[in-house]
RNA sequence: GGACAGGUGGCCGAGCGGUUUAAGGCACACGCUUGGAAAGCGUGCGUGGUGUAACAGCCACCGCGGGUUCGAAUCCCGCCCUGUCCGCCA
């Protein structure tokens, strides 16, 4: 949600931000609605003030036992204009809100120009792509033959874009989640949270999922939304609150399943674990002051990268261009892990600084140490990491020629000391 | 699912047709006091909108939406949410 006063004061900056998003300028149109709205408010308030004064006089007169008919008649004569004025002011105010609430956030100045993912800019790389002495398999070819990655069973029970993990792979998923949570809570300073996965409209609205992205979420027949990411409940932890600056920053992490309808993704990534209706993810959310959010964003991205470093997975970090960012974000880093089975880097984390966009929608404010009043908080969220895709990356990067998979050092204690996930032939 | 009780500022809490211009307290800020602190005393302090160069002023807001009335936090209707008890249940 945008602040109309910002648009009033800096229409050019607003339009420049939209342009970076690939959108046409809107400030002139919005300011015209705002102008009409303010005129309507002034007129309506003038009438309201008149009614109020007269009503007070009537009250005083009645108490004294004096006649009040003249004043009562005068108020009555105002009624039509009053009703119309109030309705007009409300209508224009609502119109402005509806226009503003579907607009995306403005990109920060250092976000690159660009219409789509081709405009994204790689900013760093870590780790070397392994040199295989044999043609590397993809994760499906590694997982399915052992029966521990079972798409066929999932199809029978839930349809496409679901999976059963069993045995070593189920445990590997759990090990990864636990490893990530432990890292974030110990070194990262994040508080572990186990949040609700069904949320109400207002929570989905607060982070910007509603009203625009309803079709991307699953909805229950009694009115709940299944969370598409733990960002939704975690960020909403501060909705409708006024925090003391001393309490900041707040840092939350959660391991949850995420549910996405993947509307519009038909035919995309149909093979394997890459794009499912339900996938596990460890999420990070930070709540900070406007002054701190840029630093916090770098820190958060660094924590996500640290997971990959510990796991020994090669990755690159890119900054998304204006045309490729999610609507709530002012700046987004994607981290892409190297997947030898696909011979490509694939997104495994996305870390966004949402500025005050979500805070404004949620009513999330804080009281600054210095100065008066309240200010909107800044909210940030990032995956660290998408656990399903991390599992894919482990399988593909740590595979051996016989189809077995070496367990990375960092995970062995979480796997009961297991060093090797056996190949299909080794199983009976 | 059933019954009842409630939703008032950052928090607690009074008010239940007209000086509410939302009491009072807590918290917070500043000052006095003090060797320093606490306590005490004094002053200030809700949110949003509109308006202004900035003040001032004005309007709205007591869960949300309607209605009654000259006038609604207060009365009426609908909805949402919360709590308690009962039922069911991991």
Structural class: alpha+beta
CATH fold-level label of the largest domain: BirA Bifunctional Protein, domain 2
Number of domains: 2
Task: Report the CATH architecture of the largest domain.
Answer: 2-Layer Sandwich
Global Rg = 27 Å
Characterize the overall form: elongated
How far apart, in Å, are the first and last alpha carbons?
Answer: 58 Å
Give me the number of helical elements. 13
Q: Find the CATH superfamily of the largest domain.
A: Bira Bifunctional Protein, Domain 2
The biggest beta sheet is recorded as: 8 strands, mixed
Low-confidence stretches: none
Strand content: 15-25%
Instruction: List the strand order in the largest sheet.
Output: 1-10-11-12-15-9-8-4
The number of E-state strands comes to 17
Would you tell me the overall average pLDDT?
92
Describe this structure in words.
The chain has 428 residues and is of the alpha+beta class. It has two domains: 4-101, Helix Hairpins, CATH 1.10.287.40; 117-426, BirA Bifunctional Protein, domain 2, CATH 3.30.930.10. It has 13 helices and 17 strands. The strands form five sheets. It has an eight-stranded mixed β-sheet. Strand 11 and strand 12 (344-353) form a beta hairpin. The protein is elongated. The chain starts with a helix and ends in a 7-residue tail after the last strand. The chain binds one RNA strand of 90 nucleotides through residues 38, 41-42, 44-46, 48-49, 51-52, 54-60, 62-63, 68, 71-76, 79, 93, 200, 241-244, 365, 367, 372-374.
């Amino acid at each position: 949600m945008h602040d109309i006063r910002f648009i009033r004061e800096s229409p050019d900056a607003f339009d420049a931000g939209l342009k970076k998003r690939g959108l046409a300028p809107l400030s002139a149109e919005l300011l015209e609605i705002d102008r009409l709205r303010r005129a309507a408010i002034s007129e309506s308030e003038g009438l309201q003030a008149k009614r109020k004064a007269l009503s007070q006089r009537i009250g005083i007169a009645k108490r004294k036992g004096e006649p009040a008919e003249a004043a009562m008649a005068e108020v009555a004569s105002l009624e039509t204009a009053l009703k119309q004025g109030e309705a007009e002011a409300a209508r224009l105010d609502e119109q402005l809100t509806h226009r503003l609430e579907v607009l995306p956030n403005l990109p920060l100045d250092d976000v690159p120009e660009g219409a789509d993912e081709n405009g994204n800019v790689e900013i760093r790389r870590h780790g070397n792509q392994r040199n295989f002495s044999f043609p590397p398999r993809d994760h499906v070819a590694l997982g399915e033959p052992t029966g521990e990655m079972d798409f066929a069973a999932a199809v029978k029970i839930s349809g496409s874009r679901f999976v059963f993990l069993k045995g070593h792979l189920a445990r590997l998923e759990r090990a990864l989640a636990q490893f990530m949570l432990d890292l974030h809570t110990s070194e990262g300073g994040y508080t572990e949270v186990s949040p609700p996965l069904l949320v109400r409209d207002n929570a989905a609205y607060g982070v910007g999922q509603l009203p625009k992205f309803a079709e991307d979420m699953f909805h229950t027949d009694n009115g709940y939304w299944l969370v598409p990411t733990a960002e939704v409940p975690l960020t909403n932890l501060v909705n409708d609150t006024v925090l003391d600056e001393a309490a900041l920053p707040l840092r939350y992490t959660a391991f949850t399943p995420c549910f996405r309808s993947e509307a519009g993704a038909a035919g995309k990534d149909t093979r394997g674990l890459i794009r499912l209706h339900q996938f596990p993810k460890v999420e990070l959310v930070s709540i900070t002051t406007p002054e701190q959010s840029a630093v916090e964003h770098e820190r958060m991205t660094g924590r996500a990268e640290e997971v990959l470093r510990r796991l020994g997975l090669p990755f690159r970090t890119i900054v998304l261009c204006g045309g490729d960012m999610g609507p709530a974000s002012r700046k987004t880093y994607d981290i892409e892990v190297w997947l030898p089975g696909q011979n490509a880097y694939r997104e495994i984390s996305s870390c966004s600084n949402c500025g005050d966009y979500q805070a404004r929608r949620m009513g999330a404010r804080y009281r600054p140490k210095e100065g008066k009043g309240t200010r909107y908080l800044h909210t940030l969220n990032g995956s660290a990491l998408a656990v399903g895709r991390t599992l894919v990356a482990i399988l593909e990067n740590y595979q051996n020629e016989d189809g077995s998979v070496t367990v990375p050092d960092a995970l062995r204690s979480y796997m009961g000391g297991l060093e090797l996930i056996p190949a299909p032939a080794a199983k009976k």
